Amino acid sequence: MHSLSNCTFTSETVLGHFDDRKAYNMKRYGDSKLAVNAFARKLATSVSSKYVIINNVCPGMVATGFDKGLPVYLRIPMNMVRKIRARPVDEGAWTLVYATLVAGPESHGKFINHNKIDP
Fold first, then answer.
1. Among candidates 14, 4, 118, which has minimal Cα distance to 57?
2. For the residues 92-113, what does the mean pLDDT come to?
3. Which of 27, 33, 50, 68 is catalytic?
């Protein structure tokens, strides 16, 4: 989702950008993912992988029931998308297990998507 961000901020501050309710759209979700990725990369420059490995993980679309609050006209198509694209929760969790227990120093400051370091 961070690839959807166009990095066009509507405020002078990052928090101001995310706090503007009138300008919210799905690109804001991408902006928030980009901000998390940037933070993880910057934090990794301050902490040695010798002490702790910092990475950013994306488990992909996981069927967590995230769309339960949507109106019916959106819930129906989202239900179809979820059935086609979303993984079960236990499969999505494996990405977090991989990032925590398997990925080594080569993942420090990197983005992990589907158990692979994503450039």
1. 118
2. 92
3. 33
